[in-house]
Write a structure and sequence with these properties.
The chain contains 5 helices and no strands. The chain is an all-alpha fold. Helix 2 runs antiparallel to helix 5. The longest helix has 27 residues. It starts with a helix and ends in a 10-residue tail after the last helix.
Amino acid sequence: ELQTDRARVTLLMIQTMLSSVEKRIQVEQQWMADECNRMRRLLQEAAEAFAETPSQPATALLRLAERARGIPEFPTVPSSHEINTAYRDLSTAFTEAMGHLNELVGEGVDGASTLLERARAYVQLRIERDMAGFFAMEGGMVGRG
């Protein structure tokens, strides 16, 4: 039996988090596969768009896209090991690519702003999925204001 309000709130927070994880785990691999495919395509588009651009950020994007080419498109439900490895690798490359795209925008390279906006839209998708899966939870965060 819980004796204090703090203990009851803590238990409710734990129950809410476990309920959220229980729901998210059913779709996590599918979301990761979808995101890997999106990141891979965006890296490839950046490489194609800036293949002829004589700039350090463009060269870096080509290198990142080449790395991404080694990772295949994923089916809707990939194996856990494959998707976790690819997700880590692609997320690292994608994060680095965002910096290079910002530099290309700063240099005024045609098409860089469009790709950066598409990359930002993808990041927003990730945030929305995280909010829906972990933070928003059906009744909101228990114990938060």
